[in-house]
Amino acid sequence: MIIKQFKLIYFRIPIIIKLLITIVILMCFFGTVIHFIEPMQFPTIFEGIWWAFVTAATVGFGDYVPLTTSGRLIGILLILTGGGLIGFYVSSIATGTIKREQDIEHGRLAFKGTGHLILVGWNERTRQLIKVVFDNNPNEKIVLIDRTLRHISFNEFPIHYINGDATEDTILERANIRYAERVLLTADLVKNERQADTYTILATVAIRGNNETIPIIAEILSKTQIENALRAGATTIIRSNDFMSALFYHELTHSAAVTPFEDILQILSKQQFSHITLPVELENKRFVEVSHHLLIGDHLLLGIIRDRKYCIHPSANLLLLNGDILVTLVRL
Predict the structure, then answer these.
(1) Rounded distance, CA 53 to CA 97, Å?
(2) Which GO cellular component terms, listed alphabetically, does the Swiss-Prot or TrEMBL entry include (predicted)?
């Protein structure tokens, strides 16, 4: 029974550790044998073991050498066995290191950290978002899940990449979804709107099933799918099509501005949007009064969220009620 348990434990040990254990046992064996064969040349077992390691590693310090024929035969056996084992051990370490780097680059390695941000979908918007995040918080831990990207260079993008489908539990577990801080799902613009939204909703269901409390920000292209995304568990819906349509209309109906809109977005990237629950002392006060109050604390009030609906730039006389969420812009 004891031998069976030992075998089970031994077979679970990584091969690198097995090799190291084998090498140590073998060196101790040869070191002990050479001590008893030539006690004058190797006064202690430790000196014999030292000779065994130096000989097997082909270092050849020459401070201890066997003088008798028996001792030299032991040395030959040591070179033939121990030398090969140590060479195999070193090459295994090198191979393991290279394989780990390849696994990281190709998205096969699980993420072990906590408090991280998970991005689902690789596109130009994700690329820009990663840049903005690291510009504002270089220590942010980001995990990217994508099923189309073949590999990603860590030197170019210091993120942890996982290749796979975000609707699968095994992929989400590799991203350590249970200990993530929040998730952002971007729409796949290569697909048509319905297919892209369907995937986003399915991924939302899978994420919510693995983490009941994590905030999920989902980009939805079609207005008709917003309710489905909310039912699936999304906490925030981004309607990029509506924003782009409003931007196009603005450009079509207004004269050219001096500052390109891209520069305005770059300026906004240096600010931070914030959601604040309406304080009790500001309840039943007008929007303009609350806005003035927040300006003192460096918060620019843009609008409110009421009954899960955004109301941006409402009437100055709108009364704010208990449960309203203030949408503000804060300077970083």
Answers:
(1) 24
(2) plasma membrane
Q: How far apart are CA 204 and CA 220, in angstroms?
A: 11
* pLDDT for the residue 8: 53
Rounded Cα distance, 103 and 280, in Å: 52
**Residue 158 within a domain:** yes
123 and 232 fall within a common domain: yes
For position 28, what pLDDT does the model report? 94
Question: Into how many domains does the chain fold?
Answer: 3
Q: Are 14 and 92 in contact (CB under 8 A)?
A: no
pLDDT averages per 10-residue partition of the chain, 332 residues? 57 76 91 94 94 88 88 91 83 77 80 94 88 86 90 78 94 95 90 92 96 93 90 88 61 56 51 79 92 86 85 90 87 62
262, part of any domain: no
Say whether both 151 and 69 belong to one domain. Answer: no
Residues 32 and 7 both lie in one domain: yes
Indicate whether 250 belongs to any domain. Answer: no
- Report d(CA 222, CA 22) in Å as an integer: 62
